[in-house]
Amino acid sequence: MNQCSSLILIDAYSQVFRSFYAMRRLTDHAGRPTNALFVFLRLLLGIERTCATDCGAMLWDCGKVSFRMELNPEYKANRPPMPDDLKAQMPTIREAAAAFGWPLLQHADYEADDLIGGFCRNVIDRPVRIITSDKDLSQLVDDRIHILAPASSGPGFEERGRVEVLQKFGVPPALIADYLAIVGDSADNIKGVTGIGPKGAAEILNTYGAIESWMNDPERFTGTRYAAKMAGQGELLARNLGLVRLKTDLPDDFSEPLSLLKKKAPDWKAIAAICREYDLQRLLKDIPGAENASPAPDKEPAVSAETDTEPDLFSAMTSPAPAPVCSKSEPEPENDSPMVQGELF
Questions:
Q1: Whole-prediction pTM value?
Q2: What topology does CATH give the domain 173-244?
Q3: Is 193 strand, coil or helix?
Q4: Closest CA to 241 of 201, 212, 198, 272
Q5: Element housing 104 (H / E)
């Protein structure tokens, strides 16, 4: 296994929901859903195989934080409940993540994105790779901090640095929060400026700079095609900036971040036991010491992972480096439902 020097931060729920929608429904011998668990385990196996680290954590949301709810009581109000089939898998998913040695961190007054931002800003002695599907975290990207995101075309993950963020959004990482404040974010129920989409937002920011440099200047857009649309939007933009900007000061009880980011070596025996318990026999070949293990004779999965031709989620991810990182064979979404992160609480 390749050891990397990077701090690896995993945006837990972004990858849990991605795992849930990545393949068709899968059940074990007892009829328990296992699709999210199966794909999530493959993700963790892939990370361990290609970029094992002794510094990292998995960050979790644990509720709607008060400061954002004060800014907008409707924040994330549009999210549907977590699907029952995923909710049933959550305890085992967390157990599996802990068995891989990842610290599981959360805080009542912080979203996972905020904690990720806090660790990025407070651990400055090594490169950082953030595994996420969340565009909000692009505001953290710089020469040291990169994102590993689902590839925009084809399977796998791609690494995003400054250049890739600029190519994707049309603005540099330093203006991502401003960009989201203008266009809004339907996933979080944040209303943007009516009539201005991604291209318009990028043009405005690249022409006039960050929002706070012109937000209180009513004459800034006079005579431009944006004059009518931007008129009277100062209050909306100020609120949106407060919602989308990350809170990067860590909680008081996280004052020694490196002590919280000590990733342990995987407990392969515990991981193999989870695979056997839930009939995920196909994964045993990738678990040291479990290659020749056979399932218990009384366990016959209702839908077997062995018969599913699901390709490897993270098979070609290399150690974090400036070059893009792409797997060759991540599973294509097969669920007809959109990949939407549900209401967690």
A1: 0.85
A2: DNA polymerase; domain 1 (1.10.150)
A3: coil
A4: 212
A5: strand 104-105
Long-range Cβ pairs for the range 249-257 (8 Å, 24+): 249/118, 250/115, 250/118, 250/119, 250/122, 251/107, 251/109, 251/110, 251/118, 253/107, 254/105, 254/107, 254/115, 254/118, 257/118, 257/119, 257/122, 257/123
- The matching CATH number, chosen from 3.40.366.10, 3.30.565.10, 3.30.470.20, 3.40.50.1010, for 7-170+249-307 is 3.40.50.1010
- Where do the domains of the chain lie? 7-170+249-307, 173-244
| Chain segment 298-313, per-residue pLDDT in tens | 444 444 443 343 333 4
Evaluated on CA atoms 48, 51, 53, 59, the torsion sign reads: negative
Q: Which amino acid is at 62?
A: C
Q: Which helix (H) or strand (E) holds 155?
A: none
Q: Three-class SS of residue 65?
A: coil
pLDDT in tens, 218-270: 789 999 999 999 999 999 999 999 999 999 999 999 989 999 999 999 999 99
